[in-house]
UniProtKB/TrEMBL annotation:
Coiled coil: none annotated. Keywords: ATP-binding, Nucleotide-binding, Transport. It comes from the Bacteria. GO terms for molecular function: ATP binding; ATP hydrolysis activity. Residues 4-235 form the ABC transporter domain. PROSITE patterns: ABC_TRANSPORTER_1, ABC_TRANSPORTER_2. Gene3D superfamilies: P-loop containing nucleotide triphosphate hydrolases. This is NitT/TauT family transport system ATP-binding protein. SUPFAM superfamilies: P-loop containing nucleoside triphosphate hydrolases. It holds the Pfam family ABC_tran.
Length: 256
């Protein structure tokens, strides 16, 4: 099981010059093996929320639990993928993917099997022996994904992972992520600015308010698991895209 509960969470950043309330009374439950995509105005607190779930930050008030256990810090049950690559340039693709399993003390044969499985799922089997500098940005992102999955987390936290990629590379990453996620279901929290990305990948799309980020609205995505890129032409998809865009405009206008 991997259910995340964010219960009345606040996060205040205090520096000598400034006090920023990033989250206040924020509550959300993310179900086991659900993919939730989070959209919201820039600077509202989405990354902060993700960092709290990851355990990189502690809430100022409220609690975050994973299956009823309070999140007290980072742990192997949660993997994070950021917009910037986190690959080690001095390791081959295979060794990058096998890094987490090696740290966890997995036997060599089990590790090799995991590396092969996830490289295959992200479409990088032919590049196992390559070094990151020999790869395109999209391919490095695939390594990031394979690496996150190979450690065997229950929860995957993605912070605008494809934000820096061009549209076609992004589309191929959506397909790659869906393929891995279908093969090895996880509870996924995906922060993005891209409404189509959110609708294509999410079971639900959460629209946050401007800072402090709270849940403004929740859109249930009615499309089944078999989604292909042409789904975006579907009138139902476009209608939901407009609903989310309006919702974002609403919170943006309220804030200005
Ligand atoms: N470590 C920190 N110290 C002080 N303030 C911080 C810190 N981290 C984030 N903040 C502030 O908290 C607020 C929320 O930031 P956060 O990065 O969570 O927003 P976001 O919704 O992810 O933004 P974007 O969509 O632009 O990536 C911002 O005002 C930011 O300046």
């Amino acid at each position: 099981m991997a259910q995340i509960t964010i219960d009345s969470v606040a996060k205040v950043f205090e520096t000598a010059r400034k006090r920023t309330v990033a989250l206040d009374q924020t509550s959300l439950t993310i179900d086991h093996h659900e993919t939730v995509c989070v959209v919201g105005p820039s600077g509202c607190g989405k990354t902060t929320m993700l960092n709290l779930i990851a355990g990189f930050l502690r809430p100022t008030a409220g609690t975050i639990t994973l299956d009823g256990r309070t999140v007290g810090g980072p742990a192997a049950d949660r993997a994070v993928v950021f917009q910037s690559d986190a690959v080690f340039p001095w390791l081959t693709v295979a060794d990058n993917v096998g890094f987490g399993p090696r740290m966890q003390g997995m036997a060599r044969a089990v590790r090799a099997e995991r590396i092969a499985r996830f490289l295959d799922l992200v479409g990088l089997s032919d590049f196992a022996k390559a070094y990151p500098k020999e790869l395109s940005g999209g391919m490095r992102k695939r390594v990031d994904l394979a690496r996150a999955y190979a450690s065997g987390p229950d929860v995957l936290l993605l912070d605008e992972p494809f934000g820096a990629l061009d549209l076609f590379t992004k589309e191929s990453m959506w397909t790659a992520l869906k393929r891995v996620a279908d093969a090895e279901p996880k509870t996924i929290v995906f922060v993005t600015h891209d409404i189509e990305e959110a609708l294509f990948l999410g079971d639900r799309v959460i629209v946050m308010t401007p800072r402090p980020a709270r849940v403004h609205g929740i859109v249930d995505v009615p499309f089944g698991p078999d989604r292909d890129l042409d789904l975006r032409a579907d009138p139902g998809f476009q209608a939901l895209r407009m609903t989310i865009a309006h919702s974002l405009r609403e919170v943006h206008d309220d804030a200005s």
